Amino acid sequence: MTVRAAVAADCLRVVAMSKAAHVAGKLPWNFSAVHADQLFQQSLDQADRVCIVYAPDGIARGFLLGYVAPSPMASISFARDFGWWIDPGHRGVAAGEMMDAFELWADQRNATFCCMAAMEANPRAGRIYERRGYARTETHYLKRL
């Protein structure tokens, strides 16, 4: 199987890919390997967190970190991604399988909706989501204080 739940041995690759995603997203804050590691560890330890990896050759070449949480505005819950990355040489084959795994995981935790983020630096992500039946619902704006 090329897509699976992450295991502890995937940590260094997921942290490295998290940094690549951070750089590619042109995020205006410094990357923190410590925080990426903590988020990964939580995905192993907490039932409401997950890390799905794409590992066609046994080495993680993509990750999708996510969580499920209740909505503060209604009696529903959302599954959301913390981050998603596929190494450039492995794109085009893993996205659908990774999203299938994330949606199944979310459904098993009774999530009402699945939400995926698309950074402005990667407009292709939005098209992937729309092909899978996701509707664009909001845009976020960021201002440094």
UniProtKB/TrEMBL annotation:
Residues 1-145 form the N-acetyltransferase domain. Keywords: Ribonucleoprotein, Ribosomal protein. GO terms for molecular function: acyltransferase activity, transferring groups other than amino-acyl groups. SUPFAM superfamilies: Acyl-CoA N-acyltransferases (Nat) (SSF55729). It comes from the Bacteria. GO terms for cellular component: ribosome. This is Ribosomal protein S18 acetylase RimI. It comes from Devosia limi DSM 17137.
